[in-house]
Amino acid sequence: MSRSLALAVLTLANAASAQPQVTALRAGALVGPDGELQTPGVVVFRDGRILQMGGQPPSGAKVIEFERAVLCPGLIDVQGPLGAIVATGRYGTALDTHLSETVLALQPQARGADAFDRFHRQLRAALRAGVTTFALAPDDQNVVGGRIAIARTCGPEGRPALLDANGPLKLSLSPEAFKTDREPTSRMGAVSMLRSAIADAARGASASSPGADDPLAAFAQGQLRGILTAPTAPDVLTAADLVQQFDSKLAVVHWHAAADVAAQLAQRKIGAITGPLDLFASPREALAPGILDRAGVEVAIAGGLPTQAADSLRIGAAIAARYGMSLAAARRAITLAPARFLGVDDRVGSLQRGRRADVVVFSGDPLDLRSRVLAVFVDGRRIRLADHSDVGNQ
Amino acid sequence: MQFQSSSAFRPCCACGAVASLILLALVLTWAAPASAQMTGGILIENAHVLVGDGSELDGASILIRGDRIAQVGTKVRAFMPSSKIDAAGKFITPGLIDVWSTLGLTDGATESKAAGLAADNFDPYAKETIEAAHRQGVTLVYVPARATAGVAGFGAVVRLIPGGSRDEIVVDDRAGLCASLGGAAPGTVIGRVRTAEQMRVALRDALDYREALEFYEEDLKDYLEALKKQSEKSEGKDQTTKQGDKQDRKPRDQQNEDEKDGKPDGKEKQQKKGPKKPEKPARDLNKEALLEALEGRVRWRVEAYAPADILNALDVAREFDLALVLEGAAGAHDVAGQIAARNVPVVLDARSAPLAYIGGVDAQRSPDAVQRLLEAGVDVYFGSGPHDGRTTATPHIALRAAQAVAAGMSADEALQKITYEAARLLGVDDKFGRLKGGNLADLVIWSDHPFAPGAHVERVFVNGREVYKAEPQQQENEQ
């Protein structure tokens, strides 16, 4: 009798341990999907996925209290090629950008994922600052640069890992793409090349990469998002034209003439990527996010990691907020907006049910630079912040 | 610190203050019709006033008259102010002070001389840059003279008045003597040794120059006396010369020569040759500039970007008893204990530690620098520093101070470090850095506490005049 009871207890205990632990974080407030601070600041997760945002922790959940802190989705750098820009050379005298390709102007098949050094210590430093997801985008040297990879500073095994190796397509009309030893050599040439490449792909006869899985064709048909570097106002108008002609989903990297093009971007539902904004940022740079946001454009602020400081995303958002961007939009600009531009908002970027449990606990509003990072959870696992092994490393 | 170029506004404020006092007495006694001096002024009401010295006043008013703050407090009495500003829900701070900025400087690091003036290099017509600073609440900056290495010249304290005359803008054109320990080209050990040694040689030369001048003065005195005696002698009076007791005042070189030659003293020579007019050492403005620092009249501000350079700067300052201020100071956290032990203030620049860098200065930076300096007890200040490689030098000083709060500084102290304490560091705390009656009317109206998220500057007054007003768009946007 007693033996069977003991067995039953044992079985129950086994069943309980097989069922993953439900964890609840309780704080003063949380950053909602709209970017507003909302209460109660409760996030419940199990097995690395968020079960519940707001409300009360379910009974039986392990509750971790953070009192008056603010729970924020893991920060996302929409242009932060961590582990792909590293100092090299015997004395660390050159900064190698592994995402810089300068020979072929059209290379839709290139993958940012292939430039990723997941073992680099930069990733750990970014993680400590609350950056959980970032994009490895081919740089601006080519008109069609290739596929952007989306990666995480901490993956399932506690190591950095890719979230999506085949993210949006990177396009560029930047002067960096104009060369003297190959086409295009001018803006006119670049636009012409981009148009015809997309048109060719749309007709299913891409010269560069015949086949069904042509990223340009997918972009032209609106199945694959694109991110276009468009420094000047005419570049943005070209982008608007493309979106109209083909049914593409696009975000532009632009801040130079924000006031001039904001209405165009809003009308065509083209997102805008601004920043990075550092502590020397000019009013022109710093005003752009607010101007675009007020015009109805979805705005992301890039952190520019790893060539900027680890907390560059928060500094950028804090500066944008000082120059007239609403606080909610500024919080969104470093969480949900970049997730949407990268096409991963179903997995990261907000604390909604079903998303990965990436939570940064700030001692106050993340936009308040007086706030400190108190804790970082990635996939529901708490990161050891005291590990300073990354400090002082490249 | 001295206040040399303040003459421009000193007379007018002095008579203004006196006149105000007399008139105040008149008004209070007889309620006589107030003159133009007494009425008028700008009254800012219902504000939350952050005085700058750590104190706060809620529901307070500030009366500006002319270029001065006339009254601050909860019971300000103003007679017929010419304009009123309702600042309910707003915060007011003194104009923020950037204690190290290259804003408005027309060029970067150059080979300059110790006697050079940064004030000559400041461009008051850099209106966009000045407006960008106003937008961040900054009204006063210290601009350095810069050189790639060695002594560069005098830094200046300037007020940000767009298009202002030199008399208006330059508060102190000798606010600090600037030197650099290879800041622009941090590098080889040989360069480091040479720069520190060159600095010592320059300082020693300046001391020698002073000594030579002192000896000259003595010799001149002796010479004049000798001349006098000679003329008395020639008049027929018999008198013994008393040169012997003055022998010890002769320049060292001459003394040595005398000893070598085995001559008993200079008496014979003097008697033989008669009084010889001493030669005045050629005037050397660069050495005189160094003497300003050596005699403690100006601070010795050294730009350094590596722990080894910082230690060299500490040593040089100790050897020559200089009032050192460290600027830039990348890597200071690694020698924080030594800096704290010598009570040397550190002005950090606005560059933060990038995750990827190509050696050089950035290799010395750490995201935890401020925290580690504070833990060691170092007196930390926030300047913008050189904006080399950037087109603008917007001083986001309030954000820097807010970051320091995250690193462990109290919010009160952080605010003082960009107002009153900053003014003290620059030696201009008698007129700037605090909202108090008699100080110059440089103040900022903020939408919120300057450290709060989304806080922005709504209006800026410099010298009692409004120099910046936010566009309505931005004011509407506040939350």
Summarize the structure.
The complex is a heterodimer of chains A (394) and B (479). Chain A is an alpha/beta fold and 394 residues long.
Description of the structure:
The complex is a heterodimer of chains A (394) and B (479). Chain A is of the alpha/beta class and 394 residues long. Chain A has helices at 2-18, 122-128, 187-202, 215-220, 233-245, 258-267, 283-294, 312-322, 327-332, 336-341; strands at residues 22-27, 29-31, 37-38, 41-46, 49-53, 62-65, 70-73, 75-77, 85-88, 94-97, 131-136, 144-147, 149-152, 161-164, 169-172, 226-229, 250-253, 271-274, 299-301, 359-362, 373-378, 381-382. A six-stranded mixed β-sheet of chain A has the order 3-2-7-20-21-22, with no helix packed on it. Chain A has a six-stranded mixed β-sheet with strand order 12-15-16-17-18-19. In chain A, strands 5-4-1-6 form a four-stranded mixed β-sheet, with no helix packed on it. In chain A, strand 4 (41-46) and strand 5 (49-53) form a beta hairpin. In chain A, helix 5 runs parallel beside helix 6 (258-267) and helix 7 (283-294) packs across helix 8 (312-322). The longest helix of chain A is centred in the N-terminal third of the chain and has 17 residues, at 2-18. Mean pLDDT of chain A is 90; it is low at 10-16 and 390-394. Chain B has 479 residues and is an alpha/beta fold. Chain B contains 14 helices and 16 strands. Chain B has helices at residues 10-30, 127-135, 166-169, 189-234, 252-261, 267-273, 285-294, 307-320, 336-341, 369-376, 397-406, 411-416, 420-426, 472-476; strands at 42-50, 56-65, 68-73, 83-86, 91-94, 96-98, 138-143, 150-159, 170-180, 299-304, 324-328, 346-348, 380-382, 443-446, 457-462, 465-469. In chain B, the strands form two sheets. In chain B, strands 1, 2, 3, 4, 5, 14, 15 and 16 form an eight-stranded mixed β-sheet that branches. The relative contact order of chain B is 0.16. At the A-B interface, strand 9, helix 2, helix 7 and helix 8 of A face helix 2 and helix 11 of B.
